[in-house]
Amino acid sequence: MNDKMNNRMDVTILGIESSCDDTSAAVLKNGVLLSNIIANQKIHEAYGGVVPELASRAHQQNIIPVIHAALKQAGINKEDLSAIAFTRGPGLLGSLLVGTSFAKGFSTALNIPMVEINHLQAHVLAHFIKQNESDANHPSFPFLCLLVSGGNSQIILVRAYNDMEVVGQTIDDAAGEAFDKCAKVMGLPYPGGPVVDRLAKEGNPKAFKLNKPQIPDYNYSFSGLKTSFLYLLRDELKKNPHFIEENKADLCASLQYTIIEILMDKLRKAAKDLKIKEVAVAGGVSANSGLRAAFEEHAQKYHWKIYIPPFAFTTDNAAMVAMSGHFKYLNNDFCPMDAVPFSKVVV
Asked: Could you tell me if 148 and 288 lie in one domain?
């Protein structure tokens, strides 16, 4: 197998992502994106959140058609692949098992190596995906990355593709979770984050003052913010049963403004203390227009060189998995066949 790998001039990686409710497959050739196919699962909208059992069943239905589509769009045969990169965790175990099992079978059938990928690190490395051969727009090491999603809020010091240190993180809820849960109590559809973002554009961000917890170091907390938002609604609804409907845009704008303030306060402190000027953002919440605007403002005010991912790479996708696999492949960092998925971050 190693002779076969070393003789190849081109490195072609198939990435598989199945950590939550999106089944995705992507192909990268020498770091250049050839395809990135994502199958969404709309069924969870009716439940207001992802149902793990339904998610794993949908992955089983989607994974073969999605991989077939990714190979076809990339214009390659499966025999052209150098390796298979798959998300090992963190995520939903049932969902991860589908991707892991397929990767093992494909690896065995094609006699090519597997590369295990940490889902969170893959979000960070999405900034290195090349859209074309001449694409050189990526951070230089070391840089800071604000990783914000439905399940995670972290500030990561990235020294190399395989050397990342979490210098700050949420001690309770994630920023994306705060968006979704506050949206839910307002009666907004799931996922709530994008709806809040849309409505916030029409509202006054300083209409309502919400709690901003004071947490040591570079860590975050969003549970207090959620509680203060809930109490605000409870108290105002006693006075006016139509309060939410009449103030929906202002509520969304105030919520979004406060979450972004909390995120940027700690990121700004970390960048100053660590003397780092290259700052990136990643994860599902990086699609938020207010957060993107805050990054642009900080770039101007603090002379940061910022990196904001294309919208296609903000949510869970296999392109970021394949990119991580590319780095690991070049370092001969392969995965044994007995690897099993993990649901939580291994500290």
From this structure: yes
As a whole number, the mean pLDDT across the chain is 92
For residue 226, CA distances in Å to 180, 183, 210, 223 come to 10, 10, 9, 5
pLDDT beyond 60 at 3: no
**Helix, strand, or coil here: 31?**
coil
Has residue 346 been placed in a domain? no
**Does the residue 136 lie in any domain?**
no
**CA dihedral over 135, 136, 137, 138, signed as positive or negative:** positive
What count of other Cβ atoms lies within 10 Å of the Cβ of residue 10?
9
CATH of the domain at 124: 3.30.420.40
Give the list of residues 6+ apart from residue 114 with CB closer than 8 angstroms, or none: 83, 84, 85, 86, 103, 104, 107, 334, 335, 337, 339
Mean pLDDT of all residues in 118-147: 95
Q: Where are the beta strands (DSSP E) in 170-235?
A: none
Q: Which residues neighbour 214 within 8 Å (Cβ) at sequence distance 6 or greater?
A: none
- Residues 248-286 pLDDT 10s: 999 999 999 999 999 999 999 999 999 999 999 999 999
